[in-house]
Each structure stands twice: as structure tokens, then as C-alpha cells.
Specification:
2 copies of one chain form a homodimer. The first copy, chain A, is of the alpha/beta class. In chain A, the strands form 5 sheets. A 5-stranded mixed barrel of chain A has the order 5-8-6-7-9. In chain A, helix 3 (81-95) packs across helix 6. Chain A has helices at 31-40, 57-63, 81-95, 113-129, 172-181, 195-205, 207-214, 225-232, 241-246, 267-274, 334-345, and strands spanning 50-53, 72-75, 100-103, 109-110, 133-138, 149-152, 160-167, 184-194, 252-256, 261-262, 282-284, 287-294, 297-300, 305-312, 314-319, 322-327. Chain A is built from 11 helices and 16 strands. Chains A and B meet through strand 14, strand 16 and helix 11 of A and strand 14, strand 16 and helix 11 of B.
């Protein structure tokens, strides 16, 4: 899934060129490229689909030359995750009714790719044999109030544990309690299931959406697919897979992830990914000369010298046509700031 | 005079491209161009000389196409103001023994060019008739501790008043006292005199320098001039015209300037030039979106959007390969910072 616009990462992430297409960590690869190569260790490239907005087709093809245009499913409108996941499942099912699939965001960070691969194989095996919907649960290392949580059945001592419920972003006290309980995980939005299981779940729980897309089965994976999607997709309900299926289904299991993960959801999350120490400065691409400066997130789109004196806990982002100097503690306001900038200065910067 | 390197304006001002060659105020003209056109209202372009370091010849010729290469006097070494002024005076004298001249820095700001022209004409007239060394004194509007002061004779009620003494940069209490006295002026480093008077003064007070350059009289204004300067100039004493002549001479008069002036000596001075209100933000070239931000000096080398939240009294400078975020109150440390940067990262940024 590569259709988001990553508005909390403005000014780097823009509607024209969102976060997943940027080398946010300065590793030499964009997040999409990182995600592709991580998945490609277990999924052959010809079995990969990129689900994205139609305006990003060219970026996807240039960043992932391993795939062909027919593997990029273009959403003519933004409808959250449920519609594109059902569409992808139907496409795979038409090609292989016994297929299993993984659904993954393209803009997250996973540290240990070997561990990821092992976890994934365990889930694929389970989904091949059982009618289950599996989610990867991240071991919560601190009471993060920015993530959703998954509550697993304490009694269940299997590798894949029964999920009791999904819990929305908690307040701090609740998050602390979750951590103390020991059977809560962060919801990373990475799902594994057989196409049969997920299609069955949609048929039961999202019948309108199921019928909307089932009518086009004959068109899927053919030259008529695009015309069908363009007409049907805008009529799909705008809903996440979590709300549509996961929170209602009875057959959801969670596999505890054995890898470190970061959703890179905000500049602060990127800071935390780069350094464990909140008082250190995290620097991407810039050449830093920092004095009396702590806890800053410094990101430049080119290798430029950044001299800072007497500044703590700021987000400092520099790109060709925008400079942002913003308190880290207000990072959640960047989405709103983006709206102000769009209103005041037009689309050039957003 | 356009030979300085303006190190307090780093990172905009660099050895390769100093302050006077930048459009520091975003007016569409560089400070050198502004200075040239201001002087050109009273001095014909063929009578103009630019005294600068040899590395800036091409910049001078491209920024001031009105002059020819022979009008750019190239200093092979940095020797402060006295040597280049004597050299210029000798060159003019050889062409016109009765000439009067003005010496002016190329990196200051003068608001009212008409008033400047009137003051200058009065000084030229006086210098044509009398053996005097005239300096323009700026009416001090506040007890600035960063400028030198000129003390004039309280008893003298002529337009050009006798100077009692030059006073180095005072402390705050002394500066306040100067202002209260009423007969003190800021020293703007703008001088007017006949070539005869200044040459006579050098002959008396700086005999070594006078003889050093007098030996080359036959070479001046000829093709041999450059060779002579290249050999003799490095042997000249490294001394300012203030120390060498003005503080010792008995025939110094001051003309109170009727124009507003700013030496643009620091980022803070540039801030003060742009806005009288110290709590306002001063912005050059940038497109600002500033919230909860006061008293900042924002300068960008391109028209880029600058978003700042929660920052007061900072210097924010952005150019292609350097970003500086520095407290305004530490602006005097920028010269030292420049040294650190040069030592750590080499010449690329300085």
C-alpha cells in the first residue's frame, strides 16, 4: 500500500511526492524501495502488487523497476485501506484461488529483515492451513499514545494468539496499563491471510463492497480492469480494514513480531528511530555543526551544512523551496500547518 | 573600497563572495551597485575607482559594467584601509593635482541619497578651498557600542566642525554619555579631502608608506602599475586610515550627515535597518510564515517559504549549501564560528 500522503511529514512529504517515495532515513533507498526489497525476500516480484493513487504511477515504476505497470493498482480516489485490499484479494484469487497474501504499508521501518522474513513465513504457513486473519503485533517498548493496540488472549500460549479486541489510540494512563498487562501489542497494519479467508470476511461483514467489486471479476487482471476500477472504486465506502473487518471478525490471530518496528508516523518518530536517546540530535543527510543543541530532528534534502546554536527539541527541515523550524512537541500540528500553508500560499509548497 | 570579507555576515558573506557583492536587503541591487549608483550621482563613472582584492576583479566588472578594468585597483594582499587610500590618492593626483576625492565603504546603507549628495557637495566645496580632512559624522540615535565616535568641538558652529578626537567603540555607559553631550557622531568611515591634503598628511604622518608608493609614481595609471603594486603593496603597513591619519591630524573636520545610515555590520544591524521595532521579524527574500516568533532576522538566498514556530531573536540564514540558526545576541560570535567551520569542514562553506 503506497497511496498515503504523509501529511505529518510536510514539507518533505507533499501530495505530489509523499513520504513513501522519499529516502527519509538517508540510507540511499526510499521507503517504498526498502519495503519492496524486504518483501521480495519471500514474495517473488511477479506476485507483488503496489496499491496507490493514480498520480503516483510514474514514481512507482521508476522507483521499483522490477515490477510492470499491470502490477500497480491505481486508486482513482482515496478510500482508505479496505477497498484496495479487497480489490487486491479478488485479483489474486482470480489468478490463484489458494493464494495467501500479505498486506503491508510501504512507509514503515523494520530493522531486522531476517526476523521479519521468519515471522512472515510462520504466518503464511498458518494461513495456508486455517481460515484465519493474522496481524503482526509489535512488542510495545513504551506507552506510546500514538498507536493502536491489539489485545491478545492471555490464556492462549500458541505462536499465533487469539485477538480479543483492537484498541484505539489510548491515553497515557491506559497505554501504561496496556504495557503492564503484557498481552498488548502495537498494531502495525501488517496483515496475512488466504485470499479465501479475507474475501469470505468481506462477503460477511462488508457485503456492499464485496458486491461492488465482485461484479467486475471478469474484468480483473484484463485490459478492462482499469475502466472497471475507475467506475466502481469511487463508490466504495471510505473505511479502513481495521474498522471494516479486523475489529469485527472472530478469527483474528496475532503473531508477536520478533523485529524492531517504527511507523515513521511523525518527525518525532523518525527522531526516535535514528537515536534511542531523546536528548541526542537526529540528523538525516545534513552535515551538522550543532552547539548547545539537544533533541533536535534535523533533515535536509541535500547534503548541506546545518549550523545550530542554542536550540532544543526542534524539527528543522530544509528542502529546496521550504525551510521549517518547528517545536517537536507540536509535531501533531504539522497537518494543520500544512492546511494553513496551502490556504495562504497555494499548492506550490504542499 | 570593496575589499572586505564581511565575516560577521557568514554564511552569506564568504571569502569567495563577500557581503558587498550581495543584495543583502533584497532590493534588486548589491551593496556595491547601490554604493556605485549613489556616488555616481555626483562623481562621473570615469572618475570612480574600486579598491578591492584581486580575487574580486571579475565580480566587480560584472556588477558594475559602467567601469573599466583600469579603474579597479587590485590589492594583492589585505592591508586595511590606509595603503589603498594613499595609492588611490596618488593615482588621482597624477591625473589631476587639484582633484578632490571621496573615500567610501561599499557595504553600508544610506537611506536618503539626495541628502547624501547635498552633504557631499558641501564637503567637496570646502575641500577644494581648504587644506582639511573631512569626515561625515552620523547623528547617533542610540548608544551603540559597536561604532567608533567622533567628538566635535562644541564651540565650533560652522557647518564643518573641528574634530577634537576620535573615540574607539565605547562601553554602554560611555556611549550614553556621548549621546547626552550632543557633540558626538558615529564614524561612518566616509572621508572627503583634496588629494594634495591627504598626500601631505601621509607624507608627514606615514612617511614610510608615502615613500613606498611614491617611488612608483611613474608607473601609476600605466601598464606598469600592476607590477609595481604587486611588489610594493605587500610591504605596506597593515593599518586603517583612522589610526594612520585621522586620529593624529590636526586639520580634521566633521560634517554632520543629514541622511540615515547603517553600517550593516552584523545580522542585527541588518535587522535594525529593515525594521525599527526590535520585536518585529526582519525578512529578506524569504516568504515568511511565522507564528509565535519575534525579533528574528530571516534571510534566504532564494525566495523560499520559511515556516517558524516558537522562536525569538534568532538569525535564520539559508543559502544553497548552508543553513544557520543562531541567537541574535551572540552575533559577535559568528566570526569565531566561521573559523570553527573552516577548520572542521574546510573552505567549501567559508
Amino acid at each position: 500500500m503506497a497511496g498515503g500522503i504523509g501529511s505529518r511529514f510536510w514539507p518533505v512529504s507533499t501530495t505530489q511526492f509523499p513520504k513513501q517515495f522519499h529516502d527519509m532515513l538517508g540510507t540511499g533507498q526510499t521507503l517504498l524501495q526498502k519495503t519492496f526489497s524486504r518483501l521480495n525476500k519471500i514474495v517473488p516480484e511477479q506476485n507483488m502488487q503496489i496499491l496507490t493513487n493514480e498520480r503516483y504511477l510514474d514514481i512507482c515504476l521508476s522507483q521499483v523497476p522490477e515490477i510492470t505497470e499491470s502490477q500497480v493498482v491505481l486508486e482513482p480516489a482515496m478510500r482508505n485501506t479496505a477497498p484496495c485490499i479487497l480489490l487486491a484479494a479478488l485479483k489474486i484469487h482470480k489468478e490463484n484461488p489458494n493464494g495467501v497474501m500479505i498486506v503491508a504499508p510501504s512507509d514503515h521501518w523494520i530493522e531486522d529483515e531476517g526476523a521479519f522474513q521468519n515471522d512472515l513465513e510462520a504466518c503464511f504457513n498458518a494461513c495456508t492451513e486455517q481460515d484465519i486473519l493474522v496481524t503482526l503485533g509489535i512488542h510495545p517498548t513504551f506507552p506510546n499514545t500514538g498507536y493502536g493496540y491489539i489485545e491478545s488472549d492471555k490464556q492462549d500460549d500458541a505462536l499465533l494468539k487469539k485477538v480479543l479486541q483492537f484498541r484505539e489510540k489510548p491515553n497515557y494512563a491506559t497505554a501504561k496499563q496496556f504495557i503492564a498487562e503484557g498481552n498488548f501489542f502495537w498494531n502495525a497494519g501488517i496483515f496475512i491471510w488466504s485470499v479465501n479467508s479475507i474475501i469470505k470476511a468481506f462477503k460477511e461483514m462488508m457485503p456492499a463492497m464485496y458486491h461492488l467489486f465482485s461484479e467486475g471479476i471478469t474484468s480483473l487482471n484484463t485490459q478492462k480492469e482499469k475502466a472497471f476500477i475507475d467506475i466502481s472504486y469511487p463508490n466504495a465506502e471510505n473505511i479502513s480494514i481495521d474498522f471494516a473487518i479486523m475489529e469485527k471478525a472472530e478469527n483474528v490471530l496475532v503473531k508477536k513480531a520478533t523485529f524492531d518496528w517504527n511507523d515513521l508516523g511523525t518527525w518525532g518518530a523518525l527522531h526516535d528511530k535514528i537515536t534511542d536517546n531523546s536528548t541526542e540530535n537526529a540528523v538525516v543527510r545534513a552535515i551538522p555543526h550543532l552547539r548547545d543543541a539537544k533533541g533536535n530532528m534535523v533533515y535536509t534534502s541535500s547534503e548541506k551544512l546545518v549550523v545550530v546554536d542554542g536550540l532544543d527539541d526542534y524539527i528543522i527541515v530544509d528542502k529546496e523551496n521550504v525551510l521549517l523550524i518547528f517545536p517537536k512537541k507540536k509535531e501533531q500540528d504539522i497537518k494543520q500547518l500544512l492546511g494553513e500553508v496551502k490556504e495562504t500560499f497555494g499548492e506550490d509548497y504542499t
